[in-house]
């Protein structure tokens, strides 16, 4: 069909979120090594235009809300130097290695703030 499958957006959002953290001197791997993950509890995407094969994309990422037990990121997926393709939001819950919801460690909370 020449358009990118909708499931790819979730992968792109995750990569953008990890890069957003890296750009602020944070390592998602270090967060996981400390025993905490940011589990996705909700993913919402509004598709405005299709991405097509070989489009160069840009994803703007922003942390909209930070609480000890939840954080919300928003995204804008665009063709580089072009139109908006999609708006998205992800909601995350910090979890321990067993998958149980926990408070985000203070050091990470402060670093994300």
Question: What are the SSEs and their pairings?
Answer:
Layout: H1 8-22, H2 28-33, E1 37-47, E2 57-67, E3 70-79, E4 84-95, H3 106-112
Order of helices and strands: HHEEEEH
> Under the CATH scheme, which architecture would be assigned?
Roll
CATH level-4 homologous superfamily: Hotdog Thioesterase
Radius of gyration, taken over Cα atoms and rounded to an integer in Å = 15 Å
Instruction: Determine and state the CATH class.
Output: Alpha Beta
Shape: elongated
Mean pLDDT across all amino acids:
94
Assign the structural class, choosing from mainly alpha, mainly beta, alpha/beta, alpha+beta, or little secondary structure.
Answer: alpha+beta
Q: What is the tally of beta strands?
A: 4
Distance between the termini: 42 Å
Name the helicity range: 10-25%
CATH fold-level assignment: Thiol Ester Dehydrase, Chain A
Q: Strand content of the residues, in percent? A: 35-45%
The low-confidence runs, each spanning 5 or more residues with pLDDT under 50, are none
Oligomeric description of these chains: single chain
Reported for the largest beta sheet, the result is: 4 strands, antiparallel
What is the count of structural domains?
1
Helix count from the secondary structure assignment: 3
Strand order of the largest sheet: 1-4-3-2
